[in-house]
Write the structure tokens for this entry.
Amino acid sequence: MKTATALGLFDGVHRGHREVLGACLSYAGEKGLSPAVFTFDTGTVTTKGKDFAPIYPESIKRMLIQKAGIEAVHSEDFSAVKDLSPEEFADIYLVKKLDAAAVFCGKDFCFGKSAAGNTETLGLLCRERGIDLHVVEDVMQSGRKVSSTRIRELIREGNIKSADTLLGESYILRGEVVHGRHLGRTQGYPTANIFLEKGTLFPKFGVYAASCELDGRTLYGAANIGVKPTVGSDAALCEINFFDYDGDLYGRVLEIRLIDFVRPEMRFSGVDELFERIAYDTKFIHKLIKG
């Protein structure tokens, strides 16, 4: 079946990306085409500089694209595509692999070796191959384009509320619950220590108000992201104390959604001072969320 295919990295599946996905999905429904996405495995992109980190690792990106309504996600290793000419890309992927009748992309979409192809190039190649091209307008917020670059900056600054506005939903961290030192449990603040997925874009280290969907319930809590400087940690992780929950979560994979930044990571004089601050943070976040 011929496809309507959305093209892009879609590393955050943010509001701009969703505009492209939505246009593709709507057109596919109108024309009786199969909606699809062509993208790159976010962990394999090597041309955006040493400081580049995708907003989401591949698993979360794929989940969000499918949640938006497009099940068929063709995600290629970037190394397999980066040296193709624009013509080779069109013939191999758009024509042969995707059987595209229409393609959708943003205004800044580039492709081919050394990013030699742009939307103008793509339009010419599509016309020659009988494919309709739809270039979707940028989504603007407060006079600025919604972009992955801006969202990454906001996440790294700890400005989660603004990042969430551009993403269209709360920023997600995912990982497996692992055993820690169990210090929190001894003080009445049991925590889930979550070893985050490889490729996670860490927000500014500190304490956040957070939520998690678990067994049909929405749980809220205080999440600390960082290296726990007072007691020490081998690697950065997410440690969350859920309000009103005390079950066994070891080995489970959780999706934590960040709601708001509360304070930066701090080093305390000892465990007593640490837990005094945890008690304060917990009350503050509980009030912030529950009102």
About this structure: The two ends are 52 Å apart (CA to CA). The mean pLDDT is 90. Residues 3-145 form a domain with the Rossmann fold fold (CATH 3.40.50.620). The chain has two domains: 3-145, 172-290.
